[in-house]
Amino acid sequence: MSDGTVLFQKRGKVALLTLNRPEKLNALNYATNDLLMQLLDGIEEDREVEAVILTGAGDRAFSAGGDIHEFSQSIRQGADIAVRAFVRRGQAMTSRMEAFSKPIIAAVNGLAFGGGCEITEAVHLAVASERALFAKPEINIGIPPTFGGTQRLPRLAGRKRALEYLLTGDPFGPERAFDMGIVNRVVAHDDLLDAAFELAGRILRHSPLASARILSAVTRGLNATISEGLQIESEQFARMAASQDVHEGLAAWIERRTPLYDGR
Questions:
Q1: For residue 164, what is the DSSP state?
Q2: I want to staple 147 with a disulfide (CB 3.0 to 4.6 A). Which of 65, 118, 191, 263 is the partner?
Q3: Bridge partners of 56?
C-alpha cells in the first residue's frame, strides 16, 4: 500500500484506491488529484489489474470536493491561473476516469460534495453507503461546478432535476442519488466495500477485453448521434473479433464449460 494522499492496494485483480485525507474530509487538493492520475496510469498498464474500486478513508467522507483553501489562492492570482491549476486539473481527472479502459467503481462511504460528487458521476459504476450524502454546493461560494458537474449530472439525471441541485446547493441522500442514476445501488454502511468487490467480481467473470470495448463504445457513443454510435459499436466489435478471448468464449459456450480468458 502506498503512502500519501491516495492509498493503493491490490486485492487479486482489483486495485483499491483510497482517498486519504480524512482530517480534511478527503478534500481533493492538487497533490491528491495528481497522484490519482499517476496511479491510474500505472493501473492501466498493469495486466494483473482488471477493475478499480475508489473509496474514501474514515467514516465521514468519500470526498468533500476541492480543497477550498488551496484553490482560493489560485483564484486570487487571476482567472487564467485558476482555470489552469484548478479547473483543467479537475476536469482532466474526471475525464480520465470516465474514459478509463477498466471498470472503475466508486464506493461512496460518506459525504460526496462538489468534486466528490463529480467523481461519482464520472466513474462507470457506484455503490453508496446508506450514510452517503451528496451535494453540488459550489454555488454557496459563488462558483459553478468545475470538474464536469454542470455537464454530467444533467446527462445522468435530466436537466430539471440536475438544475434543482446545481442552483440550490441543497444536499440529497443516497436514495435520491439512486433515483437520479448517480449510483447503482445503496447498501448498509458496513457492507459497502463487500458490495463493491462483489460487483467487481461479477464483471471479472468476463473477458477484460470485452469490458474495455463496451466501456469505450458507451463513453464515446453517449454524445454521438445514433448512427455515429452504431458505427462506434461496430468498430469495437471488429477490434474484439480478432482476439483470442472471442474464440475462447465461443468454444466454452459450445463445449458447455466456463471460459478461461487471458485478455488477449
A1: H
A2: 118
A3: 19
